[in-house]
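URGENT: need a sanity check before tomorrow's submission.

F., can you look over the Nucleotide-binding universal stress protein, UspA family record below? I want to be sure the sequence and structure line up before it goes out.
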Amino acid sequence: MSKHAQPGTVNEMIKLLVATDLSQRSAHAVQRAARLIERQGGGDWTLVHVVDDEAPQDFVAEHVQRVERLLDEQAQQLAAQTGSRPRVLVSSGAVEPIIFEACLGMGADLLVVGSHRKTPLRDFFLGTSVERLIRGSHLPVLRVAQPAAADYRHALAALDLSPGAVQAMASAQRLGLLDLQRCTVLHALEPFPRGMLTEAAIDHQLLETQAREALLSLLGNLHDASMSLPDGCVRVREGEPRQVIAQELQEVQAELLVIATHGRKGLPRLLLGSVAAELLAELPCDILCVPPQG
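Structure tokens as predicted:
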């Protein structure tokens, strides 16, 4: 796609909101957003920073002013880079409600965040601001973990067999993050535990049947969504989903993973699906998290 081509499959510019805590992790998110804005030839985007309001009021006010100056300087530099100056919003209070309100106010199409803070002792993800933003967002969230040295060259879409899962790919296309000609679609088939069946030969035959049926279902869902991929780019692999997806990412050298963040069918969306949470906690690649529509 050329620098001034429009993203996705429709002729409209996407609107971005970038949440920044001024860390190096957030710097990667800002630069990825800048690349997206530059690639579509400009557009509406906003940098948001939220200051903890539990500190003394004078300190909060001073900190807000200091951050505003820093982000205004950064916005000027980003304008020179992208041709479009981002708005700057610095507020105090609870992080998630302020960011969600800002997304709604600007009509954002995509929320861009950095990765969660990691410690030498343990990699906490659940309970972080990043986890709460992804869990609570009604917009797709791009979790950026790597420097934005180039556009994404290859994407891996890890899908279940529900027709709605393909909508995650459609969202990625619309946002200009996924090219069907440079994409691999993967379904991880979790096998029955050994011992549920009596003979290994029957186990193997059943798994082959399941894999064949899963592939046909996946191809059918893609066809219904008018998505055509190159031969061999739609795959079903047996194994634990997290391990299968991590292995496939390495094999196809994908820089972006696309996942749907719905939980189990019939349950309220109070938690991320367990597989999505594990992937976000452990994988070092950028991940586009697409919530259910409607």
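My own read: The two ends are 30 Å apart (CA to CA). Confidence is low (pLDDT under 50) at residues 1-11, 119-123, 263-271. If you see anything odd, call me.
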